[in-house]
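Researcher: I'm preparing a figure for a lab meeting and need a structural model of a single chain. I don't have an experimental structure, so a prediction will have to do for now. The sequence is pasted below. Please return the structure as tokens so I can convert it later.
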Amino acid sequence: MKKIVALCALLLACCTGILKAQTSQHTYNNQQLLAINVINNITQGNNPFLNISNPFLLNAVNNKPVEAGIVNTIQTFSATQFKYAMMMDVEVEALSNALLYNFINDWYGTRYRMGGTTKKGIDCSAFTGTLLSSIYGLSIPRTAREQYKICEQINKDELMTGDLVFFNTCGGISHVGVFLTNNRFVHASSSKGIMISSLDDTYFSKRFIGGGRVNQ
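Model: Understood. Here is the structure written out token by token.
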């Protein structure tokens, strides 16, 4: 986390044009919001700003004390990975699957639509199916209930990135998302669309049924 804070200090020193933050049920302090906004304003992927040859970044590094290894961290990870590391309060090194977070970033904020399967609107089980197919090459059934049936049941403390998490939101297995890290999961919320939430949130902790792993 210290590396992310140091990086964000550099970004805030060099960047302008802060955009409105994307929000979820997680509460951010002002420093985190500013950092996420700055990162969100950088073109995703291998952005030249994050290349160590960038003179603005070099000047920021040379004029500020930084931890050993921060320069290598900047070179190794994309702006998208830094953004979601900040959102989920983890070290960026924990987000090694760049394709996954690029996928999430591409879909983030897409509105919820019951029965929907596209970026015009998508429901929870269609989103989990699309993510697992696109990132892991896995084919799973269409509904949350059917997805639960084909999974190996996983305890909460054994969840890994890419596992499914199931909830009873309106009777039985009625909601599903994809676990990421640090008790965070990405899902299609009926109220806010594609977003990241925490299993520790009161709403979800009360309704959590269990985790599932797709083995194919």
